[in-house]
Amino acid sequence: MQQMCCSIQYGGKITQEEDRSLFFTYGYLFIREEIFGGNFVFNQQPLDYNYTIPDFTDHASYLAFINSMPTQDNPLVFGLNPNADLTASLNESRAMIATLIDTQPTDAAAGGGKSPEQTVKEIIENEFLKLLPEDFKMLDVEDRLKLMKHRRLPETGKSIPLVMFLFQEIQRF
Fold first, then answer.
1. In the predicted model, is pLDDT for residue 15 greater than 70?
2. Can you give the residue range of the structural domain that contains 26?
3. Do 157 and 163 touch, CB atoms closer than 8 A?
């Protein structure tokens, strides 16, 4: 089971050797016969919650077991330093504040600059609109569609479902 999971299904997608080694380590710790024993605990440190594999016979007991699990895991479960939660929370906060600052509107009158809306409008008008192809000429499109034939059937033009679909898509586009 370890070989199938760590080498074949998931491990083959890991490109960094250190990441693969870490993945194999976790595979050894979490995928082995001992986990099905009644007293096996995934986290070896004494924590407020011990992860085990339940052995219930009814669905309701499994749901109750799942609902009793903590909403946030302790970093020690994954072999991380207890400060990992603090570091992750600080990084999330910094990223959120940076996003809020980046999306905050600027005062165009005070700095003499352009508002974000004006900048986007200029980019669209000066760059993107020039890159668009010419509009479809529907008379030319209809003439071409009338000539299209089915590979195996005698139908031509819009009587072919795929051609009709193409025509409707071009109309909407």
1. yes
2. 2-75
3. yes
